[in-house]
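re: the backbone from monday

yeah here it is again, tokenized this time
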């Protein structure tokens, strides 16, 4: 297969300086939700997954990682808001660093793309808007093994998180 080289001699395997990080190549792991973090703990399966994808000077972005217990819109996504989760992430980061790779955590709160089955006590999802998600957006919370159950659960309207409440909830 012919190697693809740009007019400037840059290809996927050319080094790249990304702010303070010196990447050895340009093959990056995009963030991909894997639904493998049982009870939201990024365990051994994730450590193995990220380690397998680590290379010297490579760059990885983690799957979307919940910043609170109201953030998820898929089952078994990892969190990073409890001590136990942070400790589990440290093992993953160490495994990635041991291979010489760089990893960024993708923080997420899915807002109105959540569903009450992912919320504490089955409450309404918290969003920056009180407008319902579009039909195509409903796909995100119906995907995964809960989809059959979800189609039986009546949809709850959003809890609109107004800006003054956002300030109140910040530490
Ligand atoms: C299984 C799967 C899970 C994904 N999970 C996330 C995610 O957690 N966060 C995110 O920003 N994008 C997620 N994406 C989107 C990918 O990061 C990527 O942007 C998308 O697949 C388009 O890539 P492409 O432009 O190379 O086709 C996911 C994609 C797939 C296929």
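seq for it, each position gets an aa:
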């Amino acid at each position: 297969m012919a190697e693809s080289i740009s007019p400037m001699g840059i290809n996927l395997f050319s080094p790249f300086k990304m702010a303070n990080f010196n990447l050895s190549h340009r093959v990056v792991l995009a963030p991909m939700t894997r639904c493998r973090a049982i009870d939201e703990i990024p365990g051994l399966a994730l450590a193995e997954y990220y380690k397998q994808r680590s290379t010297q000077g490579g760059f990885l972005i983690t799957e979307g990682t919940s910043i609170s217990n109201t953030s998820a819109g898929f089952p078994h996504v990892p969190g990073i808001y409890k001590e136990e989760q942070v400790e589990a992430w440290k093992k993953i980061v160490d495994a990635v660093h041991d291979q010489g790779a760089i990893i960024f955590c993708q923080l997420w709160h899915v807002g109105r793309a959540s569903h009450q089955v992912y919320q504490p006590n089955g409450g309404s999802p918290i969003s920056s808007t009180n407008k319902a998600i579009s039909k195509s957006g409903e796909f995100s919370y119906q995907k995964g093994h809960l989809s059959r159950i979800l189609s039986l659960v009546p949809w709850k309207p959003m809890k609109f998180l107004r800006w003054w409440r956002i300030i109140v909830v910040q530490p």
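The longest strand covers residues 59-66. Residues 19-122 form one domain.
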